[in-house]
Amino acid sequence: MAGDAALKSAIALAVVALLSAGCATDQINGVRSAATNSDWGPGTASHDINMDGVQRSFLLHVPAGSAGSMSDIDAPPSTSFPLVIVLHGSSGDAESIRGTSQMDSLADARGFLVAYPNGSEGGFGLYPSDWNAGTCCGAASREGIDDLTFISAVIARIESTLPVDRSRIYIAGFSDGGRMAYHVACQLAPTIAAIAVVSGSLVDDECFPGSGVPVLAFHGTSDDQVAYDENAATAVPGRVPDMAADLPSSVQFWIAENACGDGIITRVAEHVVRTSFDPCSGADVVLYSIEGGSHGWPGEPGAGGPMSEIRASELIVEFFGRQIRR
User: Fold this and answer.
1) Does this model's pTM top 0.90?
2) E strands along the chain, which residues?
């Protein structure tokens, strides 16, 4: 009987997730179905990747204009596109983070590609979609899903068809997707120009980056799902400046890893404090602490209170525009 109850509960969760995904699809128009994976023109299309017999998918938005530099739209024309990969949170999907981040319009304005991969839903698709970012959380972690290879496959698939600037490949993620962004930085550092983490934490307990990775983070101090003071799974690899002692340990990890000295604290809005470490010996680190902020994407449609005081997506693109992998 207990087993039947567990199965019914899992099925109910799957139904809820499917219904939620359906709602997100209804709200976001203009996605083409590229069943043959041959539709790579301007706009947003869905693409599939076969991962050892398991079908995975991602949305890709191609800007209508030519490739740009991200940091300066008046720069000389580029022959290849920067690529930004945006990862959804647990129980979300590509459509939901596309709507939350509103990254398509920024991609059109700045001339970069933006991909939104879908996480996995566990055995038989009975669990909310999530990522295997290390020691936590959900079915992807329990089942050992190789999401690092999937992210690499998404990059390779896009590169095989469109001109991608390999020195400008970036990862951004929300919540569990933020945890996955940290995981990518830990394990695939030489291929990534920078990451941005929104309401996420470091759950990779073997984080040994092969090179410095620029990190931009956003976190609400009242986040009730991924706590602001959640301990990083890998110990901070050295001393951090005294002024960083109260920052999230996941951010402290990168401050120490990137050999940063004292930073600069700036109040940029009534409830938002920016702590920046630039330059660092390894790579820059910037944190936006949102006082009283909740678990969410700052500036997303419908955001209120402290979460409405900054627009994370614009700040992410500006930060990425300053980072080039050497």
Assistant:
1) no
2) 31-33, 43-51, 54-62, 81-87, 113-117, 164-174, 194-198, 215-220, 264-269, 272-277, 285-290
Cis omega (within 30 of 0) for bond into 137: yes
Sign of CA dihedral 243, 266, 297, 195: negative
Rg (CA), the chain: 19
How far apart are the two ends of the chain, measured CA to CA in Å? 58
* C-alpha to C-alpha distance for 289 and 265, rounded to whole angstroms: 10
Q: Which of 194, 187, 190 is nearest to 208 (CA)?
A: 187
Half-sphere exposure of 211 (CA within 13 A, CB side): 10
- One digit per residue, the tens of pLDDT, for the chain of length 326 reads 434 444 344 434 433 333 333 333 333 446 776 544 458 999 999 999 999 888 999 999 999 988 887 876 556 667 899 999 999 999 999 999 999 999 999 999 999 999 999 999 876 666 789 999 999 888 899 999 999 999 999 999 999 999 999 999 999 999 999 999 999 999 999 999 999 999 999 999 999 998 999 999 999 999 999 999 999 999 999 999 999 999 999 999 999 999 999 999 999 999 999 999 988 999 999 999 999 999 999 999 999 999 999 999 999 999 999 999 98
- Residues whose CB falls within 8 Å of the CB of residue 61, separated by 6 or more in sequence, listed in order: 43, 44, 98, 103, 104, 107, 113, 114, 115, 116
Q: Other CB atoms closer than 10 Å to residue 135's CB: what's the count?
A: 14
Domains and CATH numbers, the chain: 2-321 (3.40.50.1820)
Region for residue 51 given its phi and psi (left: phi exceeds 0; alpha: psi -120 to 50; beta: otherwise): beta
Q: 3-state DSSP call for residue 242? A: helix
Report which DSSP code applies to 219.
E
